[in-house]
Amino acid sequence: MRTIDEMSVNALRILAADMVQKANSGHPGLPLGAAPAAYELWANHMNFNPADLNWENRDRFILSGGHGSSLLYALLHMFGCGLSKEDLMNFRQLDSLTPGHPEYGHTAGVEATTGPLGAGMSMAVGMAIAEAHLAAVFNKENYPVVDHYTYVLGGDGCMMEGISSEAFSLAGTLGLSKLIVFYDSNRISIEGSTDIAFTENVEQRMEAFGFQTLTVEDGNDLAAIGKAIEAAKADKKRPSFITVKTQIGYGCPAKQGKASAHGEPLGAENVTALRRTLGWDSDQAFEVPEEVYAHYRELAARSADAQAQWNRLFDGYCAAYPEMKVLWDRHFNGDAAESLAADEEYWAFEDKPQATRNLSGVLLNRLKDRIPGLMGGAADLAPSTKTYLNGEGDFCKDNYAGRNLHFGVRELAMAGIGNGMALHGGLRPYVSTFFVFSDYTKPMARLAALMKLPVTYVFTHDSIGVGEDGPTHEPIEQLAMFRAMPGFNVFRPADATETAAAWYHAVTVKDAPTALVLTRQNLPQLSGSSRDALKGGYVLQDSGKETPDAILIASGSEVSLAVEAKEILAGKGVDVRVVSMPCMDLFEQQSQAYKDSVLPGDVRRRVAVEALSGFGWERYTGLDGAVISMKSFGASAPAAKLFEKFGFTVDHVVEVVENLMK
């Protein structure tokens, strides 16, 4: 290595070690070993502009091994991306810009929130899918306005996690040649050598997935790393997987190559020894020579030139293809809320019983022409979840312009890929599976909520109404699980109007994921159903009294039960209000005055009806109310038989209300 390169790599190592040491918390092992690969990539191969970290055509870099966050923060600091030395000194402290794992939207330059190992790998695949699709839509001869790479760095843990295999299997199938994966192979995990649990030939696995595989034997050899990156870029048909053989904790004599280097500070004496081994002159923590800063400034200026060239290209593109500039703005800056709210065709449906999954399918195909960035698919279930965009083609290696993604039976990776597509920008992704299998999506759905990503989850077969498939396919606790997640809006609509409202919210919200939980069985269109569903809960049918005798609250398929029970109760002299609660999350965001108008505090006889777990309904029914819900798993039988067996009948609802009246 040239002297300035060696100093620049070691600056990353020293800063990372100092961050962890000052915080007395963190993971120094990965940064010390992987610093050369990160430096070579950022310095000589990656296009980005520190002055505009949101440039649309920048290369993306995801640190899938998010525990090594101090390496990413050191890079962002040295390249002048907005992190100061003081920010580094506040590593892992409350409200700092340098949290323990990278957080998207919190720290400028962080492309994805990573923490669960392997998550970054799936999100990188999603970004590469977005790049390939947008390139197919927008690029014209001599105008490659979408032309960038997605780089992701992870280690042995990322490769052990199943989500990586799911995502890479699909990436190879799709031939995503702009995806380049760095495997920091140091052969150490928390419990010791990876040989105790992980002895497979990773490169052969990646070859089987359809990747070009490359190996750098010495993780300190910048020239070899650079050569591997260029070889990866030269392959135009396959994604590439670069194994970089490193030593965890490199440069620290007492820790190098040992598991103890992974997740604990090196210790003051070992940090001093690290400085001596690396030939670092200063013993002052966080001290970097000015000549190293000057070198990084020069590298950053070179990166800024890449955007300047692209800006000139894009200006010429817009002049030559003004209609594409309009489409570009719809993809990257579009807001459909106002036009969609006034679009009567979007909101119109026949007055006949329909399954909400079917209604959702109709709405999705209405939306595809109104929102050109809408793109997604299902985990091998599109015919059942009704999530296919008619006439839009399939996204595959022969047609990246297609808008229908076939994720295969890979729910976890599907959700992570959806996150990556949203993070990339320019697309409105949706993903889909049966609601009971939402368990497989949960970790990545949680990251979507953490990152405030507007990803839509279409979950069908929403209750014991699944019927004959039995308890393995009948969701019970899943709705409560998703409702419990902060920043995640869960809709369970009761009819066409509420389903339209749910989709309207999903494609217009900017800072939260949305789930649509939909029925397989037909539901009637309800009198009183309205766009007030966008408030989360509303009075569907009121009583004739100023103060109702009781309130029935329900969601989804059970709302019609409540409406029928209201009619029966009226004949018995009991006047009730029916409240539809399609989205508790949005209802909780309303003013207290509105919530009190729907559920007045002086009406204590309240009955909630939902054919899933009753967990969470107590906040609305109170101590004097009742919840008609599932208290066990389901059974295998026709849906009508199951609703009767578990008490979801008009007669039972009436009986519960009458008991409260006593």
UniProtKB/TrEMBL annotation:
Summary of the function given for this chain in its UniProt record: Catalyzes the transfer of a two-carbon ketol group from a ketose donor to an aldose acceptor, via a covalent intermediate with the cofactor thiamine pyrophosphate.
Chain sites annotated for binding substrate: 27, 262, 357, 384, 461, 469, 473, 520
Source superkingdom: Bacteria
Binding residues for Mg(2+): 156, 186, 188
Family as reported in the entry's similarity comment: Belongs to the transketolase family.
Subunit-level organization: Homodimer.
Reported cofactor(s): thiamine diphosphate; Co(2+); Ca(2+); Mn(2+)
Active-site residues, Swiss-Prot/TrEMBL: 411 (proton donor)
Domain Transketolase-like pyrimidine-binding, residue spans: 354-525
Gene3D superfamilies noted in UniProt: 3.40.50.920, 3.40.50.970
Record-level GO BP terms: pentose-phosphate shunt
Sorted UniProt keywords: Calcium, Magnesium, Metal-binding, Thiamine pyrophosphate, Transferase
Binding site for thiamine diphosphate: 67, 115-117, 157, 186, 262, 437
Site residues, Important for catalytic activity: 27, 262
EC number: 2.2.1.1
Gene Ontology CC: one annotated term: cytosol
Top EC group: transferase
Catalyzed reaction equations: D-sedoheptulose 7-phosphate + D-glyceraldehyde 3-phosphate = aldehydo-D-ribose 5-phosphate + D-xylulose 5-phosphate
Name used for this protein in its record: Transketolase
Organism annotation: [Clostridium] asparagiforme DSM 15981
One Gene Ontology term of the molecular function aspect: transketolase activity
UniProt gene name: tkt
Keyword Magnesium listed: yes
Cofactor: how bound: Binds 1 thiamine pyrophosphate per subunit. During the reaction, the substrate forms a covalent intermediate with the cofactor.
Pfam families: Transket_pyr, Transketolase_C_1, Transketolase_N
